[in-house]
Each structure stands twice: as structure tokens, then as C-alpha cells.
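Worked example 3 (structure in, sequence out).
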């Protein structure tokens, strides 16, 4: 008998992390480079909501979303210098595609190549960088060191400025981009943080 969900699964808690983590992950896409507002999954309902308008003029440089069944908490925080805590959200992921993709609420098979160590007001908020698994241009890339510097610079600039608001102090920093080896540690830590929060302690399931 084929397995399927009778009801729509929660994007964070009801979907699989991916085929072969930490290299091959499943990404749930919330934002595309064509969006001028920030969409974010509502943690309680699982539906997409408008989180806020983007004040800057820059567009997101890649597909953006998160990895199901991950959480940025204590273990993820311990991997980032200067972080005081994890941000309490699933692990963010940017997925690079040769062809433009304009739809959100889609699932993408992604191959991890590295990441950006972003600290947002003291919270570890890593951005994993990946490529679409069978992408004709990027599928052979194994590590972030093989990516054009301009793409990584563009991502760093976006995340450093997309929350900019005149008159407000920005407390966001991004360290040196890391390759697949360190990305493996971040992904495994986020999976363990999720397991601690939602699998080992049944009483916490009311947080879903």
C-alpha cells in the first residue's frame, strides 16, 4: 500500500529533512528572488503569512526557505563565535538555480555546498547554501569554494542589509563563509536540536 498524508503536513514538522542529510536535503521555499515582501511559515498553523515588507531595494539572490525538522538552538549556537543563543527557528537555506523559479510553497531537492555564519542580535541564524540537485549548471559543485565569489558576495550583502530601517541600529554580522565540512556540523547540530525539542520530550509536542 502506498504511503501518503491524508491531510496537508506541517511544512516544518511534517516533512522529511531530505534524502541523505547532511549533503542532500529537502528545502521548503518561502521566498523567491521575485518577491518584494518577506513570507514566512506561521509556526502554529503551517500556512504562509506575510511577515513584513522589504524596505531595501535589493532582491533576494536565491530561493530561500528552511530545512524541515531542524532547529537552531543550543548546539547550533555553540558552533558560532559571539552568538548567545539560537534563533529558535528551523535552519534557513538558500538554493541556487540556473533557471528562474517564481513560485513559493514548493519543495526542492537541494545539495549542500556551504553556508554563511550570520549572527542577528546575538542569535545564531546560519544560512545554508545549496544548489538544486539536478541543476544543469550547478549540480557538479561540491563546495562553496567552487562558486563564483560574486554570488556569495551578493548573498552576504543582502542578509546584511535586508532588515535595514533608517534610524534603527543594525546588529547583524556575517563571518567568513564556510564550506561543506562545517555546513555538515551545523546541519547535524540543527537536527539534534530539533530532536531534543520535539522528539525526546513528548510534553513539548504542544508547541507544534
Amino acid at each position: 500500500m502506498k504511503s501518503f498524508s491524508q491531510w496537508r503536513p506541517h511544512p516544518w514538522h511534517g516533512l522529511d529533512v531530505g534524502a541523505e542529510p547532511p549533503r542532500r536535503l529537502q528545502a521548503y521555499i518561502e521566498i523567491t528572488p521575485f518577491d518584494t515582501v518577506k513570507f514566512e511559515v506561521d509556526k502554529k498553523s503551517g500556512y504562509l503569512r506575510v511577515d513584513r515588507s522589504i524596505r531595501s531595494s535589493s532582491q533576494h539572490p536565491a530561493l530561500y526557505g528552511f530545512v524541515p525538522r531542524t532547529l537552531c538552538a543550543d548546539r547550533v549556537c555553540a558552533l558560532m563565535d559571539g552568538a548567545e543563543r539560537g534563533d529558535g527557528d528551523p535552519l534557513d537555506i538558500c538554493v541556487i538555480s540556473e533557471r528562474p523559479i517564481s513560485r513559493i510553497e514548493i519543495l526542492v531537492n537541494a545539495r549542500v555546498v556551504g553556508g554563511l555564519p550570520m549572527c542577528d542580535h546575538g542569535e545564531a541564524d546560519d544560512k545554508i547554501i545549496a544548489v538544486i540537485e539536478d541543476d544543469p549548471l550547478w549540480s557538479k559543485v561540491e563546495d562553496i569554494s567552487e562558486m563564483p565569489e560574486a554570488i556569495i558576495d551578493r548573498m552576504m550583502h543582502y542578509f546584511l542589509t535586508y532588515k535595514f530601517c533608517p534610524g534603527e541600529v543594525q546588529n547583524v554580522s556575517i563571518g567568513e563563509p564556510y564550506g561543506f565540512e562545517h555546513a555538515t556540523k551545523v546541519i547535524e547540530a540543527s537536527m539534534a536540536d530539533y530532536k531534543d525539542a520535539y522528539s525526546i520530550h513528548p510534553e513539548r509536542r504542544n508547541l507544534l
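Notes: The first helix runs from residue 74 to 78. The two ends are 28 Å apart (CA to CA).
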